[in-house]
Design brief:
Blueprint (H helix, E strand, L loop, with lengths): L1 H32 L3 E5 L10 E9 L5 E7 L4 E7 L5 E4 L3 H5 L3 E5 L4 E9 L7 E4 L11 E4 L12 E7 L4 E6 L5 E3 L6 E3 L3 E6 L4 E6 L7 E4 L3 E10 L9 E7 L6 E6 L7 E8 L4 E7 L2 E7 L4 E7 L4 E15 L12 E4 L9 E5 L10 E9 L8 E4 L4 E3 L6 E5 L2 E11 L4 E6 L6 E9 L4 E6 L11 E4 L3 E5 L4 E9 L8 E9 L17 E5 L5 E7 L10 E10 L4 E2 L3 E7 L4 E7 L4 E3 L5 E10 L3 E6 L2 E3 L5 E3 L4 E8 L9 E7 L4 E10 L1 E7 L4 E4 L4 E10 L3 E6 L2 E3 L2 E5 L3 E8 L9 E9 L2 E19 L4 E3 L5 E10 L3 E6 L3 E3 L2 E4 L5 E8 L8 E8 L4 E10 L4 E4 L4 E3 L5 E8 L5 E6 L4 E2 L2 E5 L2 E8 L9 E12 L4 E14 ...
Parallel strand pairs: 35-42, 36-43, 45-52, 54-61, 62-69, 71-78
Antiparallel strand pairs: 1-6, 2-5, 2-7, 3-4, 3-6, 7-8, 9-16, 10-15, 10-17, 11-14, 11-16, 12-13, 17-18, 19-24, 20-23, 20-24, 21-22, 21-24, 24-25, 26-32, 27-31, 27-33, 28-29, 28-32, 30-31, 33-34, 35-37, 37-40, 38-39, 38-41, 41-43, 44-46, 46-50, 47-48, 47-51, 49-50, 51-52, 53-55, 55-59, 56-57, ...
């Protein structure tokens, strides 16, 4: 084991020190060159399309990562990544790729990349296949031809498949299938029929995919650009009915990548295999050498042969034209236990390289895979020590492996061996001799699953290997007596060569049974043949020498020793075997020749013959044997010479003389004629000739004589060899042909000399240079009016001198005058036409003619037509700055010229275009300015006569105006046609037309404004406006619009819409019954926007709710309150109120229901007489009253008393409902006559049947009114009355203005009437004494004086404070900048007051303002305030007021002002 390892390491080390370094440099160099490689691939469908995964394996030899990009346009998938050396990258594709035959594009930024396609199946692994992808290589061919290769056996379930992928857009593909029946092109309605050619046009990556139950091998694909052809079978069985099926796929190379030499090794682990050889062209001769046994086949285009071979059979294939070889592994069974059907394209010898990089399949789930690598190396490079195989794990020399020779005609042409790899791996095989050529094929099989795959190592034809030259065979046998051997050298791929190929060859002795050069054959030390561009076959001849000895077969070798450039050598040697023979047939090697001679002279005929045994020679004359043979001489043991003479020739001697040579093997003869001679005579001499420079000329000379004369040609004593001779026995015709004549060939004689052995004769002809006619001065066009004259002149030159004629309108030939010019070959001509008529206008052609050609020039006699403007420019109106386009069309001779002129004389150039005799001119004025708005003229001019006699010019003009477009005038007379409360119809008139512009743009629209806001638009001078508001004044203006813009507004016109009945009911309607039979109503007007006029009053109706009769209406009222009287007490009334304006009464009403108060209960009063208590007691005057009951629920009651004045001592005129709140009542101590005051509040729970007025002891003080401190005694002898008020609940506290404490608002109640007056019997008081003493009176007076003094002091202090705080209006305008203010309304009259409080020992001010707009301007200082600190300032308008200097007083408090 150690010895074996040592033997492996030594050559490996040599490789590392030499080849590896070089290889690394090669990789590095190639990587920096930035080469690109592209593939166009596809996957036909795998078995049942179930669980299969199409994918590609990518490997590289680059030292740096190689980026790749993959795109499948049909699925939208794309892939990016890099490939790293010694590490395969695998990209899987979606299954729909194979179902639909989609095209796949793969691109690399390096050409050192190998791509292997594979289609695996999982979880079952019984159908797998692989192929070597062929990159798109530009062959620069005009046509690419491919042939499908499959091996189906008529199984429709698993058909043959072909997928064609286009590599470029607009690729034309012609397709012809080989099987009967039809094959449908996927995704189309096209059915391919056998033998019919179909044409498709494909875009890039578009595909043609079709399947057939039978074998599609030989299906022809021809394209004008490269395509990729994927061929195989969904699941093939080989042979039919034997074993399992398997998926097959290969990419088929184009025929220009096929070869003429193939080496095929058997498939390892198989007992048999199949091989097909497919021809690219007709008449392809194929030599097949399998195990050194030769078979020959002739195939036409697309035909193939199939070989069934055994395990140990290897083969060599040679062909005269390109073929494709495909190897098939059979299905398992019948002696083939391993693997499954496999199909591999065999690489031709022109694809062999020094280094092959490949890979096994990757990612198969089949277990126990065995991967066999077959290595084939050409014999001349074979050295096992120099061949290495590298896998993922190691690099090993193949020296110890068995190498089997592959022979043809016993000549070893190559060797093969195979290596087994058990793991999926990258495979690299290389030869340390960088000139050596080898290739590999990889087969894999898994014993578990009857599955296999296979693919070639390299199928690309490199630039250096695309052409191969060599002998067509390596072995030839020749008979010694044949005298020579012919060998054929052929070159393939010659259609790509752009240079001649020279092949050098020589002879050499064979290693065994060698013939002797110079004795058995003629030695060739070095000789060569050259293939011109396009040549493919050359023949070389080697002389074979003949001897009389009997010998064994002898051999020599003819070897190709060198080629000049850039092609490989195929079969480089031929072994020639010379077979010996004891007898050789007789041959006359020098025959007698026909001879002419004059009468009376002598002649000799000779003859030489060879043969074994030595032949004898005899002569005869006209079949009469001539006895005299003494003139015979033996030259050597196999050759004899003989001659016979005829002297003093007579007429009878002019006969046939025959030489007969004969030996025991055969007899041969040759004859010659003795012909009577004559002196040459030139029967047809050559003629003088005039020929064009660069042309060709022939001189013919015919001479007669016996023998037929020999004709030679000469010029100026120089012999000319370029002749063509036709000779009979007595006549010779010679033609001297001179081509591409130059100046040196002209102006000399050419002499014909006819001669034979008996004399000669000469004749000459002169060659003159000719010239085709050329019109030097052509006739000129003439423009002329009718009735006038015209002249045409024409001059021409030519040799011989031309003749000039005139032709009118290609028909009539006219006669003009001609004269010879100043120099040889020149001619002048003139044609005069007088008094021109209408039918004489047309084309006049000058025709100059001589023997070589003619030349013509045509001139036109054109009738002059006055210019006329046929389309005049129209007046145009544009706005300043706009573009104006002005058009003018004129017709006349030769398309008149049009110019433009403005009124001020400025000229303009328009854009002119001509059609025939018509000129159209377009003048464009961009951005018209004020100067441009004026008149213009279009001026057209043309020439009506223009010739050598005279010139006449005519003109026409058209005038037009460019107007300035402006906005319309403002509309006028805006008026109201009709009006309603919510709509109005208006009309108006257009303003006056603008002067000087009849083309001003029309009014397209009118804009109507109401109260300065756009309200509508109209295309006519009237409009109806809706959605107006009743009883509203409107101002209307109208604006006219054209394309330039808007007019000024019309004068405003006013109108008012009439009134409409109010649109809403009065708001906030309230009703109450303050007293019996009375309902008081109050309300607010309807919303202002619903008045629809002036509210003139309110319509009020009422009725008892239970009544079915009509409601009672009262006269309309104009105030916001009303009192209904005379009503029933304690009754529910429904009251309605509607607003009234000038249009009528509103349909909307406000409704309220109210119950009138019931009749109050009868009140009685009992006067309690005044009693005088004992000393120290209190005298009282009081009235005991009964308290009424009510059915209305209540929570508490008030008892209210009033002392009556003398006017009310009788019947009371008070209404108790008028006292609506606590503020309406006085305190006991302050109440005057007729001023009610509250004496008690009694809860419902404590409500008594009777109550005593004026009895301190029985007073129940109202807790909300602490100031009600007593139910004080009544005054004596005075009338009193009272009433009772019931409250349903205690009212809430409401904070009134300047009332921060707030009081309850007792505004909802039920009340009784005043009780009849009752007069007290005697005086009563709250004091302890009945009379005021004098002391008390003094005290009272003193108290009043003190109060007056204190009041004066308070006034003085207040004035000081005001001055201190500078209370004046100006101070309100100068508050500090950082003050916080409330927003007030301008133009509103305010007054203000100051509250002075102390907070944190700092002065804090709050200024309040009162809105005095509503009639309170007379409010004086301090008026209306209960706080003695309040002061009022004089009123001031809000424009001058800055409010609220109080940081703690937020904005929301402003609403309390």
């Amino acid at each position: 084991m150690m010895i074996k390892l040592f033997l492996m390491i030594v050559p490996l080390a040599v490789f590392v020190l030499s080849g590896k370094v070089k290889d690394h440099e090669t990789r590095k160099r190639r990587n920096t060159e930035g080469s690109v490689r592209e593939y166009y691939l596809g996957f036909p469908q795998n078995y049942q399309n179930s669980g299969t995964t199409p994918s590609i394996i990518m490997i590289t030899s680059e030292s740096t990562p190689v980026p790749y990009f993959i795109n499948i346009p049909e699925t939208g998938d794309s892939y990016n990544g890099t490939v790293v050396a010694d590490d395969a990258s695998v990209v899987q594709f979606p299954q729909t790729v194979q179902v639909n035959g989609y095209g796949i594009f793969v691109r690399f930024d390096s050409d050192q990349v190998v791509v292997i396609g594979q289609n695996l199946r999982a979880p079952r692994t019984d159908t797998e296949g692989s192929f070597l992808a062929i990159p798109t290589i530009g062959m620069n061919a005009t046509q690419y031809k491919y042939f499908g290769a499959t091996i189906s056996r008529g199984n429709a379930k698993w058909p043959s498949e072909i997928l064609i992928v286009s590599t470029e857009s607009n690729t034309a593909v012609n397709l012809t299938v080989t099987q009967s029946g039809t094959a449908n092109v996927a995704g189309t309605s096209t059915n391919l029929v056998d033998g019919t050619e179909y044409t498709f046009t494909l875009d890039r990556l578009q595909t043609i995919y079709f399947r057939h139950a039978d074998d599609l091998t030989g299906t022809k694909v021809v394209s004008d650009k490269p395509v990729s052809v994927m061929s195989g079978s969904e699941c093939a069985i080989l042979p039919l009915g034997r074993g399992d099926c398997d998926y097959m796929i290969e990419q088929i190379p184009p025929t220009i990548m096929w070869g003429t030499t193939y080496y095929v090794a058997p498939i390892p682990s198989r007992t048999t295999y199949f091989m097909r050889i497919l021809a690219a062209d007709d008449a392809t001769i194929v030599q097949v050498y399998c195990n050194n046994t030769q078979q020959s086949h002739t195939l036409n285009e697309g035909e193939f042969i199939e070989e069934h071979l055994q395990l140990q059979e290897n083969c060599v294939i040679h062909s005269n034209k390109k073929v494709l070889v495909i190897q098939y592994a059979p299905s398992p069974g019948n002696g083939n236990p391993n693997g499954d059907v496999t199909m591999v394209v065999v690489p031709s010898s022109n694809t062999y390289s020094n280094r092959i990089l490949s890979s096994t399949i990757r990612g198969s789930v089949a277990s126990g895979y065995v991967h066999d690598i077959i290595i084939i190396v050409q014999a001349k490079y074979f050295d096992a020590n120099m061949i290495f195989l590298s896998s993922d794990d190691s690099t090993n020399s193949l020296e110890t492996y068995e190498w089997v020779p592959i022979k043809a005609n016993d000549v070893i042409e190559s060797y093969y061996s195979h290596v087994t790899v058990s793991e999926e791996s990258t495979i690299e095989v290389f030869h340390t001799n960088t000139s050596a050529l080898l290739n590999i094929m990889i087969y894999g099989w898994a014993p578990c699953c009857h599955v296999g795959y296979g693919h070639a190592g390299r199928l690309e034809v490199t630039a250096a290997a695309r052409s191969q030259v060599g002998f067509t065979t390596n072995k030839v046998t020749v008979n010694e007596g044949s005298g020579m051997v012919e060998l054929t050298i052929a070159i393939d791929n010659a259609d790509h060569l752009t240079f001649p190929v020279t092949v050098t060859y020589s002879t050499e002795e064979a290693t065994v049974d060698s013939a002797t050069s110079g004795v058995d054959y003629t030695e060739v030390a070095e000789a060569s043949v050259t293939f011109a561009i396009g040549e493919t076959i050359k023949t070389v001849t080697i002389d074979i020498d003949v001897d009389s000895e009997v010998e064994t077969d002898e051999k020599f070798v003819v070897r190709i020793t060198d080629v000049n450039c850039c092609v490989d050598i195929g079969i480089d040697q031929v072994v020639v075997t010379i077979e010996d023979s004891s007898t050789v047939e007789t041959r006359i090697v020098v025959a007698p020749l026909d001879t002419t001679q004059l009468l009376g002279l002598n002649v000799t005929f000779s003859c030489t013959a060879t043969g074994i045994p030595l032949p004898s020679i005899s002569w005869s004359s006209d079949n009469v044997v001539m006895i005299d043979a003494s003139n015979t001489t033996v030259l050597n043991e196999t050759t004899v010479y003989s001659e016979i003479s005829v002297v003093d020739i007579r007429m009878v001697d002019f006969v046939m003389y025959t030489c007969t040579a004969m030996n025991s093997f055969n007899s041969v003869n040759e004859s010659a004629m003795l012909i009577n001679a004559t002196i040459p005579i030139i029967e047809v001499p050559p003629d003088d000739v005039t020929v064009l420079l660069g042309g060709n000329v022939t001189f013919t000379c015919v001479a007669i004589g016996v023998p037929a004369p020999v004709i030679t040609w000469s010029s100026d004593d120089n012999v000319i060899n370029t002749t063509s001779v036709v000779a009979t026995e007595t006549r010779t015709t010679s033609v001297l042909s001179l081509t591409n004549l130059t100046l040196s060939d002209f102006n000399q004689s050419y002499t014909c000399t006819a001669s034979n052995d008996h004399g000669m004769m000469i004749s000459s002809a002169f060659l003159t240079e000719g010239m085709v006619p050329v019109i030097m001065v052509a006739p000129e066009n003439v423009l002329q009016l009718q009735g006038r004259d015209a002249i045409f002149r024409c001059s021409a030159f030519g040799i011989p001198r031309p003749i000039i004629s005139w032709v009118f309108n290609d028909e009539a030939v006219l006669s003009g005058t001609s004269s010879e010019g100043m120099s040889d070959g020149m001619v002048d001509a003139e044609l005069n036409i007088t008094n021109i008529s209408a039918d004489q206008f047309g084309n006049y052609t000058c025709n100059a003619t001589n023997m070589f050609s003619d030349d013509t020039e045509t001139a036109v006699l054109e009738e002059g037509i006055e210019v006329m403007i046929t389309s005049k420019p129209e007046d145009v109106s544009v706005a300043p700055g706009e573009r104006a386009e002005l058009s003018c069309v004129a017709t006349g001779n030769r398309a008149p010229n049009i110019t433009w002129m403005r009124q001020d004389g400025m000229n303009f150039t328009g854009s002119n275009s001509t059609t025939g005799d018509t000129t159209s001119s377009l003048l464009i004025i961009s951005g018209a300015m004020s100067d441009d708005f004026t008149s213009y003229a279009c001026i057209a001019e043309n020439t009506v006569a223009d010739n050598i006699i005279e010139t006449i010019v005519a003109s026409d003009r058209a005038v037009f105006t460019l107007y300035e477009s402006v906005v319309p005038s403002a509309p006028i007379n805006v008026a109201t046609v009709s009006d309603e409360s919510r709509s109005v119809t208006l009309s108006w008139e257009d303003g006056p037309l603008l002067p000087l512009n009849p083309l001003n743009p029309n009014i397209t629209d009118y804009l109507v404004y109401l109260n300065d806001s756009l309200n509508g638009s109209s295309t006519s001078p009237t409009i109806t406006l809706s959605r107006l508001f009743p009883f509203t004044s409107y101002t209307v203006t109208v604006v006219a619009v054209n394309r330039i813009g808007n007019s000024e507004m019309s004068q405003s016109s006013g109108f008012s819409t009439p009134e409409e009945i109010p649109g809403a009911a009065p708001q906030n309607l309230t009703a109450q019954s303050p007293s019996i039979g009375i309902i008081q109503l109050s309300w607010q007007p309807p919303p202002v926007d619903k008045h629809f006029g002036i509210i003139t009053g309110y319509h009020i109706t009422y009725r008892i709710s239970t009544s079915s009769g009509d409601a009672t209406a009262i006269n309309p009222v104009v105030t916001l309150t009303a009192t209904l009287s005379g009503l029933q007490s304690d009754s529910e009334y429904n009251v309605t109120i509607a607003a009234i304006n000038g249009a009528g009464t509103s349909l909307s009403i406000a409704t309220v229901s109210v119950r009138t108060i019931p009749e109050p209960p009868a009140l009685t009063a009992i006067v309690i007489p005044t009693t005088r208590p004992p000393p120290g007691g209190i005298r009282t005057t009081s009235i005991t009253v009964t308290l009424p009951t009510t059915t209305v629920p209540y929570s508490h009651v008030w008892v209210v008393a009033v002392r009556l004045s003398s006017r009310n001592s009788g019947v009371l005129t008070f209404d108790t409902n008028s006292y609506a709140n606590r503020a309406a009542f006085k305190n006991y101590s302050t109440a005057m006559d007729d001023e009610p005051y509250i004496v008690a509040e009694i809860s419902a729970d404590n409500y008594p049947a009777t109550f005593t007025l004026g009895d301190n002891s029985s007073t129940q003080v109202f807790s909300d009114f602490p100031e009600l401190d007593c139910n004080g005694p009544l005054m004596e002898g005075r009338p009193y009355s009272y009433f009772v008020r019931f409250f349903s609940s205690r009212p809430p506290v409401v904070r009134a203005r300047r009332d921060p404490i707030g009081q309850r608002q007792y505004t909802v109640f039920t009340t009784t009437r005043f009780a009849p007056p009752v007069t007290t019997a005697s005086q009563a008081t709250c004091d302890q004494d009945d009379d005021i003493s004098s002391t008390a009176l003094v005290i009272i007076i003193a108290s009043v004086v003190v109060i007056i003094i204190l009041t004066l002091m308070f006034v003085i202090i207040t004035i000081v404070i005001i001055k201190y705080y500078r209370w004046k209006i100006a101070s309100l305008k100068n508050l500090q900048d950082d003050s916080q203010y409330c927003t007030i309304n301008p133009s509103t009259v305010y007054s203000y007051a100051l509250y002075d409080t102390v907070k944190s020992s700092n002065k804090v001010y709050r200024y309040e303002a009162d809105d005095l707009t509503n009639g309170n301007e007379a409010l004086g200082p301090g008026a209306g305030y209960s706080n003695p600190q309040d002061l009022h300032a004089p009123p001031i308008t809000g424009d001058d007021v800055i409010m609220n200097e109080n940081p703690a007083y937020d904005e929301t408090q402003c609403t309390h002002f």
